[in-house]
Amino acid sequence: MNKRKLWSLVVLCLLVFGCPMSVFAGTFEETSSGWRYRKDDGNYARSEWVLDQGVYYYLDGDGIMMADTTTPDGYLVGGDGSWVTERQVTGGYVRTPYDNCPYFYDPKWQTFIFDETTDYAGVNDTLVMSAVRGITPVSELSEKNKAVYEEVCMFLTGFDYGASDYEKAKKVYEEITGRAVYHEGKYMQADDEAYSILVTGTGKCVGFARTYKLLANVVGLKCGIREDGAHMWNAVYVDGEDMVIDASTIGTSADFYLGRQKAECPYCGHKNTFGNRETGRPCANCGIQIQNPKYN
Ligand SMILES: [Zn+2]
Predict the structure, then answer these.
(1) Which of 110, 220, 223, 274 has the fewest CB atoms in 10 Å of its CB?
(2) 290 C-alpha vs ligand 1 centroid, how far in Å?
(3) Domains in the chain: how many in total?
(4) Which helix (H) or strand (E) holds 281?
């Protein structure tokens, strides 16, 4: 038998024995627009879930695998397209669409930096964040951080990652104010910890501020800590604008903080924040009267 004939036989064997294998199993095919899935009947999966090697994937209306998003029927799929169940066993951590975002570890500060402009605050919980992102194994966390991590996971379960920044910032505020009350008594160190807010259900402004930052960050919001020496609160970024928000204040609402309007002074460029019912105010920098764009 010459070589050409031998090769023909090999190809024939592949045609006969190779193809039926993949046809019956269903296969992913990579295309320029993403992954497609050819089902065992030879048709491409569209607007449906497929089960491949024990993992669920969703193919959109064009037959392209969805990734890092929420499917039309409301389920979260990770970066690799796999369905993120409440706690995926593989990886051992709760998964979010932000798992593959860039970060670095600063050995001098001994902290994970996910956002350079907001993560160098004295109080933050980047170690818990790194566990949520799957960087630090949960088993390496302290007992308190483990408990915080568990609470974060519960908060993330069923979270609508497709919501607007405003809705997310509001959800975080309501989660915290629904769980914790301001500790009116004598200051204790625990008042400053996310553990106290999320597990014990009480704390002071530092605890509220760092918990707000933690929960905002895990759902993908940029969020900073603000302080004036006596008090601490947050600046949460809603569509690129940093909005003041204070989860430790009693008797107010997320809309009170997030619904405020900002306007640049036309003379000096200073950004002024208007009160909710303020139609106009003097610029905080140059004193020129400016109008609230919400009412003009
Ligand atoms: Zn001005």
Answers:
(1) 110
(2) 8
(3) 2
(4) strand 280-282
